[in-house]
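Q: Got a minute? One more chain.
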Amino acid sequence: MEQPKLVLPGDQVAVAEEFEAGEGTYERDGQILASMPGVLWLDHANRIAKVRAFNPPAALKVGDVVYGVVDDIRQMMATATVGAVHGRTRQISGEAEGTIHISNVSEEYTEDIRDMYHLGDIIRAKVIQVKPSVQLTTAEPDLGVVKAFCGQCRGTLELRGRDLFCPRCELSERRKLARDYENLKLDVPAAELGAGHVVARQRGGGREGHDRDRGGRDRRGGHGDRGGHGGHDRGGRDGRDRGHGGRDRGPRRH
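A: Always. Here it is, folded:
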């Protein structure tokens, strides 16, 4: 057998002319594909391709770079089931579902989280919290979607410029991509992908989740003060000093 190799769901692991689909794999269009994250074993003697689950279990730690499948997307967050830790050939133990808040999706401002992830996408993320719940981020260049599937035919999307393209349906889609999307660095040390280093992210203050409106925009002004020139808060004197057109009257002139 060959040296074991980390694979993700949807990865081509062999061709049907040379191997049969075994445990953790399936055949489609003459290709043997992985059906789960795990370790690839190519049994040349019996011509069988297998993907086996990681063993023994590994506990998640802050700073781990992980792989997961997006299984829920809401207005301000997405959740992903974590299936592997980069650099560790062991199965996840304990809490396996992580949450990504909209502020931790991208390095840039995210208007709609549904433009960044789709259900079923495989992402590479970093653990920024493990207790009381697992929190993840993809707001780094090496983090984001590593394998995306067409919303129509579920085929793997190819990178065309800055967008993704389905050659079968001839449709373009958008994602928050890891920069090695087409040539994944699955065998590099985890440190090269930023593992072990967590940067505190602050966008306009610590209560960002409570101060955003339904469209995801920050309600506060440029300085974060309620009376700032860019603010829309109606509380305090600012609300009483506004005219019918919504403009601030400012101090009265004598």
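A: The radius of gyration is 23 Å.
Q: Perfect, thanks.
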